[in-house]
Amino acid sequence: MSTATTELRRFLTITGQRFKTGQSAPEMFSPAVDKAWHDLLGTPAYEALCLETAGQPIRHVANNGEEAYGPLPEIWFTDANGNVDQDAVTRYRKTGTVVAEWTAAPPAATATTSPRTRRRPRAGDHWPHQRSAPAH
Fold it and tell me: Which distant-in-sequence residues (6+ apart) come within 8 Å of 6 by Cβ?
């Protein structure tokens, strides 16, 4: 299993946990993980993965990114072709911020394509709230 697929599994697991507690979906901001997501969408394997990890189907709708699982591995700064954005990795390691300029995530209340800057997650942090329900 690739690192991107492993991170997708984690993302779907967190999404399912959040939905079960009435919270919103986390945001996806890694092009490499999003590519793994697109590669599986609409397949029986994706349906099974969603049921296994999230306990329900999870829709994919354009949105902005969010960080997960504490310090992020390089896969989160890797494009769909496997190229690591070393400047972004260095900035993240120095400042704890990620600038995301792409869109892909479960549905959000409002979608924007402008870059968003995030700080490094800290103990007790929570995912951002999202107002719309999941599907797909």
Answer: none
H/E segment holding residue 15: helix 3-20
Query: For 8-58, what is each residue's pLDDT tens digit?
Result: 999 999 999 999 999 888 878 788 898 899 999 999 999 999 999 999 999
Contacts of 51 by beta carbon, 8 Å cutoff, 6+ apart: 57
CA 38 to chain centre: 12
Query: DSSP of 93-118, one letter per residue?
Result: HHHS-EEE----BS--SS---S-EEE
